[in-house]
Design a protein that fits this description.
Structural class: mainly alpha
Distance between the termini: 81 Å
Shape: elongated
Largest sheet: none
Order of helices and strands: HHH
Helix content: 55-70%
Number of strands: 0
Length: 97
């Protein structure tokens, strides 16, 4: 449960600092306060990405590909041939003179 809380808090801090940086930029322009908050948002964003990328390291199932269950079958080609066989001949909409 602790890992989920860490992921959630890092995501929350990333969003809060990003929104705060945008608000500071709107009101104060490119001041030093904006750059400090933007740097904090970037740092929390990188930390968040690092925490989320560590999620799959412990599971060996994620690293091994699924085994093939049989020979390769081109399903699209099979469907195309079935469609051709099921179609009824088209009726002519022309009027005979």
């Amino acid at each position: 449960m602790e890992k989920v809380q860490t992921e959630l808090l890092s995501s929350l801090f990333t969003v809060v600092f990003s929104i705060t940086a945008i608000i500071i930029f709107i009101y104060n322009g490119g001041s030093i306060i904006f750059y400090a908050v933007a740097a904090l948002a970037l740092a929390f964003g990188l930390f968040n990405a690092w925490i989320l990328s560590k999620n799959g390291e412990g599971s060996p199932e994620a690293k091994t590909p699924a085994p093939m269950s049989g020979p390769y079958v081109n399903v699209a080609a099979k469907r195309a041939t079935k469609r051709k066989a099921k179609r009824a001949p088209r009726k002519s909409t022309r009027k005979k003179r």
